[in-house]
Specification:
- The structure holds 2 protein chains of 2 kinds.
- By secondary structure, chain A is α+β, with helices and mostly antiparallel strands.
- Chain A has 2 domains: 6-80, Beta-grasp domain (Ubiquitin-like (UB roll), Roll); 92-160, DNA polymerase, domain 1 (Orthogonal Bundle), CATH 1.10.150.
- Chain A contains 5 helices and 5 strands.
- Chain A has helices at 28-35, 92-99, 109-122, 128-134, 145-160, and strands at residues 6-13, 16-23, 54-57, 60-63, 76-78.
- Chain A starts with 5 loop residues before the first strand and ends with a helix.
- Chain B is α+β, with helices and mostly antiparallel strands.
- Chain B folds into 3 domains: 24-32 and 456-592, Aldehyde Oxidoreductase, domain 4 (2-Layer Sandwich), CATH 3.30.365; 41-139 and 202-247 and 254-285, Aldehyde oxidase/xanthine dehydrogenase, a/b hammerhead (Aldehyde Oxidoreductase, domain 3, Alpha-Beta Complex), CATH 3.90.1170.50; 289-454 and 599-753, Aldehyde Oxidoreductase, domain 4.
- Chain B is 27% helix and 26% strand.
- Chain B contains 19 helices and 30 strands.
- Chain B has a 7-stranded mixed β-sheet, with helices on both faces. Chain B has a 5-stranded mixed β-sheet with strand order 7-16-15-14-8, sandwiched between helices.
- The radius of gyration of chain B is 27 Å and the shape is globular.
- Chain B starts with 23 loop residues before the first helix and ends in a 6-residue tail after the last helix.
- Classes of the chains: A alpha+beta, B alpha+beta.
- At the A-B interface, helix 2, helix 3 and helix 5 of A face helix 1, helix 4 and helix 17 of B.
Amino acid sequence: MNHASVSAVTLVVNGDEHQVEVMADEPLVRTLNDRLGFSSVRATCAMGICGTCTVQLDGAVVSSCLLLTRQVAGRSITTSEGMMSDDGTLSRVQQAFVDHGAYQCAYCIPGMVVTVDACLSEDPDASIEEIREYLAGNLCRCGAYVSVLEAIADLVEGGRG
Amino acid sequence: MNASTDTLAPARPALGVSLPMPDAVERVVGTLKYTVDHSIEGMVHGKLVRSPYPHARILDVDTTGAQAADGVLRVITGAHIAAAAEVPNPLFGLARRDQAPLAIDKVRYAGDPVALVVADTPANARIGAASVLIDYEELPFMVDPEEALVPGAPVLHDQWPGNECGEWRLESGNVDEAMARAEHVFESTYTSPMASPVPFEPHVAIAAWDSDRLDMWTATQWPSAVQQELAHMFDIDIEQVRVRTFPLGGGYGAKSQLKIEPVVGAAARMMGRPVRLELERDEVFLTIAKHPANMRIRTGVDSAGLFVVREIDLLYNGGAYAVLTPKAVAQGLVRSVGPYGFPNIRIRSRGVYTNTVPSGSFRGAMTNQCAFAYESHVDEIAAGLGVDPVDLRLQNLLNDGDRFASGQVMHDVHFPELIRDVAETIGWEEPDVPGGSGKARGKGVGVILKTTPPGSRTEVRVEVRADGRVLVHTSSVDMGQGVRGTLAQLTAHHLGVDFDQVSVLDPDTAETFDSMTAGSRTTFVADRAIRQACESVREQLSQLAAKKLQVDPSDLGHESGAVVGLSGSRHSYSEIVGGAGLAAVTGDGAHQSSPSDALDDPLDVKGEVAEHWHQGAVAVEVEVDLETGKVELLRCHGATWAGRVVNPVRARQQSEGSIIFGIGPALFEELILVDGQVSNPNMSDYMIPSILDVPIELTSASLESTDPDADIHGVGEMTIPAVAPAIANAIARAADARVRHLPLTPEKVLRAIMGAEQE
């Protein structure tokens, strides 16, 4: 495979179609961040460990550093930016994170938002413990986990209230 | 001027309130701009080629293939930089100028940068870098600091033939006599390995030259140090270098001092165009590491359990370049004393060069290693004497008015309150619950001292604008601790305006000077600088209002963002500024910590070693699997002396985040060397704590003074140093297994349980 060979693909990100030229071996995270400007999606470990590149692919949580862009042509990708309404209204998950100060340097936080959102979409009755397990693949070096768990507790309890 | 008719709402209190960071929404959604997101017109991209050998002479660098690769514009080597008129002083370093932007003549660690390939895109730079061919002649190497001291050991730097990288000593009282007379003498050696800060945003910098002026955007905690050192490197005035930074995606010490800025600045100048360099993950691991350290402690105790004498020998592995080690080991000396009083004490703290990743700041720098040693040691003494470890601490802890080992009289000292808080919260007095089958539970504590060294400076400028905005110019860096929010709260408090009016600008050395954002110093020093700037602004506003109203300035007061006359008439600040035909009124403030001669003689440290004392404590409960040695952290509580709390949620996040950060190096984090190379420079083989490593019960307390004018203490790293010893002590109590070497892996714990731990 010629590393530099370029092909055109169509990506559907947050409901919008984007035509992009990508390299054959280009990981999805690079296309989303570098070419399309979705700054919530970041390559940190580049090996599927840390979760800062987390997006939803047809609703499922994936590490976008482990997928080639060409593999996901035409499929529906959702990033944290896409969870905010056009008028700036935050999603329920995003609002809970803001309300509980669940961020420090925040490099990892949008990835956590995407994961928690997917978990609750799959199972609206997910417990705090289940969501915590779900977040095992979203690392935070500042150690904001306690505030994140409080935001989750609010989502779980608020959702049932 | 007429009295303002607008109904000014009284400003909401801004101190002691959990206001969100002003950019909370951007942080959560993912639209916050970090330095890694910055780009400028016409920039090209670099990729470093690094040495695979820990110590080798560079015989030849063949750049032909790389030069011919697609998009490659230039390949720069150390030899090019050494010969370049554009880089008159190629060596840099804040403590010793011993490092070049690219290795000249020889490499000193596996990972040392040898060449920079610059191309039109990052991908082309990477491909080009793979085509650079380098001939090396391997040299003998060593990675163990004890080996570095042996006569005949490989020499890294010709100027330092014994691999010395700093030596500091302190002695007071009569150590030998006291040791001879002590009722009991305890001695142990403790070690901490190389570890990595792992900031998620990598090191990234952009340099752009306009004739002899350099613009640098870099993810740094020390913008002013970068400015000064680059001015020296390029032989230009300090004012000709402008360093800016955006919020950091994590620092934890990794972005202290200078890192990639010299090579980026040199390449941009040599090429005459802007250059950007962003490190890949393995390179972040190879750029800076936590100092590995060996600490031997010997303590003499009298018949009543009082510590009468201590001897400390501390050896830090500085890695291949000095970075800050020769000065940092002085802080290591001061912090090795811990929170205890010793009538007789002798300390030697040394740094040495070895062929490993350069050592530098790491959250809790030069404190974590010592605290693991001295707090483990206290429990070993307690076990030896058969007394309670908390009681032994309370008996020996420093109190207000006591003299520190250096002779400095200590004030604002709260160690006993901290240890009582954590002991009570963990239920120290309650009997240990038996563990499950084949498991044992135990509790442990640790209490630590850290210092803010004298001699740093912080400037701020507060600008009250006619449009009602208040801008704070600062070079303090937001790295997740919330500088943008905390400085806005302090400004709102001292100016008496509403928090929402205040914006904190990003660091810019063209505007303000700040020594560094490090060592948990920012909130303490910024509070003083901001108070001064706000007083200046208020005085100017009084003068302007007095002139307009034709009254004496002393008849005017200030309330909620307005000048208030004797009659009760209110004139908002914006109205006064606008009414005077000005765009803004600005006030400058600075905090310069008083200079001290304590460190003038490295071999005789004495006097004022700290501007102010950081104090923290941690208590944990663990469960040890007696068959596997696996340790589970069940509960954890940390306490930090805060003086006054600016923002309760953020203070808590610092204490608890610091505990979580500390769990990694305590239980599993270690950079492993194989044949002189780091074998795990990735986030799969070098693990950091996940949400599943956080104990379900994790709490903290920020202890405050009743004095409304008490010093505001930094709270960023007061629990991390106490985590590892608290866990080690809990393991010892649970399983009668003392581990003196971090991290506390199942293998080491199991060996200790079996009575087979090697020294």
